[in-house]
Amino acid sequence: MKIENSQRLSYELMTKNDADLLFQLDQDPEVMRYINGGKANSRAYIENIYIPRLEGFTNHKKGWGLWKVTLMDSKKFIGWILVRPMDFFSNAPQPNNLEIGWRFMQKFWGSGYATEAAKTIKEAFIKQCAIKQFTAIADANNIGSINIMKKLDMSFVKKEFQQDPLGDINVVYYQVLL
Q1: Helix/strand/coil (H, E, C) string of 73-100?
Q2: Class of the CATH-defined domain 9-177
Q3: pLDDT at res. 90
Q4: How far apart are CA 112 and CA 88, in angstroms?
Q5: What is the pLDDT of residue 165?
Q6: Given 3-state DSSP classes, what are the helix, strand and coil percentages for the chain, each rounded to the nearest 5?
Q7: Residue ranges per domain, the chain?
Q8: In this structure, are residues 121 and 141 in contact, taking their beta carbons and an 8 Å threshold?
Q9: pLDDT of 86 higher than 70
Q10: What is residue 169's predicted lDDT score, i.e. its pLDDT?
Q11: What is the rounded CA–CA span in Å between residue 19 and residue 178?
Q12: 24-82 pLDDT tens trace
């Protein structure tokens, strides 16, 4: 899977070699606010939990993983876009229903980068794969992420308690059928 550059951004799948970038991103309490209540992830967490999970769902051929988002003009890392089957860590993953998500450094919020990146990646998957739908989830209070979901032509589906090995949370689901 290849994602072409968009107007301002370039993309590549992240690997364990990007642990420093993942660590830096997760140090901002505002970035982590709707993920874990604003706690920075430790280096040990990144190395021992985050990277093994990332390696567990990354599939270069199918394009699943965290897509590193970099500013084309400065080559600066600004965040990532997640793509993986919904319910990947359950007994019934959904390979034709891809979860799309994002995490960006706070200083780049409000510039349209997350929307540009998510749209570019979503469109690449539509062109290159037989995907039936995309789903995104967020804390119900995360208005910024919900606004991005709407800009991706996603519609509200439900609010429910999501179980995850790393912590259960009440989330809203937005979805677009293709």
Answers
A1: CCCCEEEEEEEEEECCCCCCCEEEEEEE
A2: alpha beta
A3: 86
A4: 28
A5: 61
A6: 35, 35, 35
A7: 9-177
A8: no
A9: yes
A10: 80
A11: 34
A12: 999 999 999 999 889 999 999 999 999 999 999 999 999 999 999 999 999 999 999 99
Write out the H or E segment, with its range, that includes residue 160.
strand 155-162
Instruction: Output the six-digit token pair for 79.
Output: 């965040």
The phi-psi region of residue 122 (left if phi > 0; otherwise alpha if psi is between -120 and 50; otherwise beta) is alpha
| Beta carbons of 98 and 130 less than 8 angstroms apart | no
- What one-letter code names the amino acid at 17? N
On whether the pTM is more than 0.85, the answer is yes
CA distances 36 to 30, 39, 76, Å, are 10, 6, 26
Q: Are 85 and 98 in contact (CB under 8 A)?
A: yes
How far apart CA 147 and CA 110 sit, in angstroms, is 11
Residue 13 neighbours by CB distance under 10 Å: 19
